[in-house]
């Protein structure tokens, strides 16, 4: 037990720790450590050992009673003895901490526990050490008379200052002036790029102004290392930094006799590893094959007429093959790649929805088809002047929403991908059997999804793979909604020895030019797949190949996840790969 050190006025002698008897004479009243006529450390060790041993015994007995459905209030002689020992040791521990420890803090300072005798130099060091340990100096026996402490009023509270910002390291007077103007609302934040002519500087000033306005730090959001010029006017407005997402590689995926290393940007553990295992199973079984069924992006404006009859007249006009050439001429003049394929109309009272489908080359094509539709509307206005255009998009397209029209008619690229997995590979790589996979697929992906009223969701995890590849390759992540429409089929072959597995995805919306595909990181991932930019030989070939790779990756992931579920390994694998032991909040960006 610690005591106070006191300056001695007598001759110098070494420090001497007083005995238990000396200490007890300085205290008033009995102590818990006097329970046994033994040295203090032996008494403490004995009671602590008894306490924890009894706790362990009682918990073990409690668990056995619960397992055996024995009432907890029925106790044996050993239980009674254990409870008595628990109470006794617990009382001792309370007494030890409640009496000895408190006395050492309150009463001991008034007694000479340590006889400190040393030279003046050692005394000064000792007092300095004590001053550090006891900031108020209350435990020191000072000879000076006590002084009345002056009450100092507390300073006024100040607003919490945000963490130090690593960038910019210095702000010149001009930047400070602009920041203050943004904070005061005099300069719109969105106008910084045009006013300054420097996108990086604009992002830094906007970031600093945001931190001052919100009193929140953005120190964990990177700012350096990004080309802000590349996103100006097409990818993101008012940037203050960028988010880091790790990119993993699954594969090689053997698809149509070619190997592909598939980039996947994700923060979900197990996803890349699972897809990689599926790629291995496909590769060992001879690879997968894909077929492109349809390639057409859609846009569906909504127009209104005075009567339903008049709306129907336009419907019949557009669906008449004799009028298709003149309408397609008006549509196709907007782009050298956009070519009108067909128009499907739906009537709701006097409102008409016209679903235009067209090819878009290697672009995803939403802007391309919208420009073509606008040209057609302008053309139709001449023959139907009473047509009231309510919107260029009437949700009959249908974009970024699950819909039956996309599930049935398709949107973007419609792809089917299949593989025959050998029985040995199912057993050795996937750790399950063909019969279990076929049964699970029927009950989960087909029957279970039907019971849930799923729309295009007859699969295990197509959305996982579509999202990861879309983010890595610069696609529109929101289009994951309809692009993940997928039905997974599994059937036994060769008397149940081998497995036929396929995925049918009617609306994969991808492009290799435009949008986020031009950014450096996303462009590198497209280059890894061999589909960067527009195809010079065949327009649209790169985008179609990317859609086939997406479907092949979904096939691999479906195969692996379904096998993990059939083998009962889903939870254990996620506990192993999806639980970080590092505090990532402390990792610097």
TrEMBL record:
GO molecular function: hydroxymethylglutaryl-CoA reductase (NADPH) activity
Topology relative to the membrane: Multi-pass membrane protein
EC number of this enzyme: 1.1.1.34
CDD domains in UniProt: HMG-CoA_reductase_classI
Keywords: Endoplasmic reticulum, Glycoprotein, Isoprene biosynthesis, Membrane, Mitochondrion, NADP, Oxidoreductase, Plastid, Transmembrane, Transmembrane helix
Catalytic activity: (R)-mevalonate + 2 NADP(+) + CoA = (3S)-3-hydroxy-3-methylglutaryl-CoA + 2 NADPH + 2 H(+)
Protein name, as recorded: 3-hydroxy-3-methylglutaryl coenzyme A reductase
Record field: transmembrane: 38-59, 80-99
Any one annotated GO CC term: endoplasmic reticulum membrane
UniProt similarity note: Belongs to the HMG-CoA reductase family.
GO biological process: coenzyme A metabolic process; isoprenoid biosynthetic process; sterol biosynthetic process
Organism: Populus deltoides
């Amino acid at each position: 037990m610690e005591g106070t050190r006191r300056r001695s006025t007598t001759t110098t002698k070494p420090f001497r720790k007083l005995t238990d008897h000396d200490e007890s004479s300085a205290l008033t009243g009995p102590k818990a450590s006097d329970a046994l006529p033994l040295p203090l450390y032996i008494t403490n060790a004995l009671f602590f050992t008894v306490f924890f041993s009894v706790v362990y015994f009682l918990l073990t007995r409690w668990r056995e009673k619960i397992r055996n459905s024995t009432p907890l209030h029925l106790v044996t002689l050993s239980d009674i003895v254990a409870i008595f020992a628990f109470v006794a040791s617990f009382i001792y521990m309370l007494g030890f901490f409640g009496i000895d420890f408190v006395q050492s803090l309150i009463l001991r300072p008034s007694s000479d526990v340590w006889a400190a005798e040393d030279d003046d130099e050692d005394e000064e060091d000792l007092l300095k050490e004590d001053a550090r340990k006891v900031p108020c100096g209350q435990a020191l026996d000072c000879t000076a008379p006590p002084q009345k402490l002056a009450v100092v009023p507390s300073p006024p509270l100040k607003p919490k200052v945000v963490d130090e910002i690593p960038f910019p390291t210095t702000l010149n007077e001009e930047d400070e002036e602009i920041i203050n103007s943004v904070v005061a609302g005099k300069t719109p934040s969105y106008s910084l790029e045009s006013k300054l002519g420097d996108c990086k500087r604009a992002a830094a000033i906007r970031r600093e102004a945001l931190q001052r306005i919100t009193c929140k730090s953005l120190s964990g959001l990177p700012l350096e290392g990004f080309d802000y010029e590349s996103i100006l006017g097409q990818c993101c407005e008012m940037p203050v930094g960028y988010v880091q997402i790790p990119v993993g590689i699954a594969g090689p995926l053997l698809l149509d006799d070619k190997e592909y290393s598939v980039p996947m940007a994700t923060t979900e553990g197990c996803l890349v590893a699972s897809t990689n295992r599926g790629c291995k199973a496909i590769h060992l079984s001879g690879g997968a094959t894909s077929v492109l069924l349809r390639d057409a992006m859609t846009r569906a404006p909504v127009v209104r007429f005075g009567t339903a009859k008049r709306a129907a007249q336009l419907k019949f006009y557009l669906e008449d093959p004799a009028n298709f050439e003149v309408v397609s001429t008006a549509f196709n003049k907007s782009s050298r790649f956009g070519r009108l394929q067909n128009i499907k109309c739906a009537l709701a009272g006097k409102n008409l929805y016209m679903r235009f489908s067209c090819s878009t080359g290697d672009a995803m094509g939403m802007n391309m088809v919208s420009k073509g539709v606008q040209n057609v509307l302008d053309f139709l206005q001449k023959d139907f002047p009473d047509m009231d255009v309510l919107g260029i998009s009437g949700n009959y397209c249908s974009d970024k929403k699950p819909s039956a029209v996309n599930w049935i008619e398709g949107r973007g690229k419609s792809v089917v991908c299949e593989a025959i997995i050998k029985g040995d590979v199912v057993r050795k790589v996937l750790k399950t059997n063909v019969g279990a996979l076929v049964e699970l697929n029927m009950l989960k992906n087909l029957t279970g999804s039907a019971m849930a009223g799923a729309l295009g969701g007859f699969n295990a995890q197509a959305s996982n793979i579509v999202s990861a590849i879309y983010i890595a390759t610069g696609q529109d992540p929101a289009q994951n909604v309809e692009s993940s429409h997928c039905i997974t089929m599994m059937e036994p072959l060769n008397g149940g020895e081998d497995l036929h597995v396929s995925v049918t995805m009617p609306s994969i919306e991808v492009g290799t030019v435009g949008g986020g595909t031009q950014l450096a990181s996303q462009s590198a991932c497209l280059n890894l797949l061999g589909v960067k930019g527009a195809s010079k030989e065949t327009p649209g070939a790169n985008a179609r190949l990317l859609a086939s790779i997406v479907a092949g990756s979904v096939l691999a992931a479906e195969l692996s996840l379904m096998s993990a579920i059939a083998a009962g390994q889903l939870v254990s694998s996620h506990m192993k790969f999806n639980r970080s032991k590092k505090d990532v909040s402390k990792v610097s960006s």
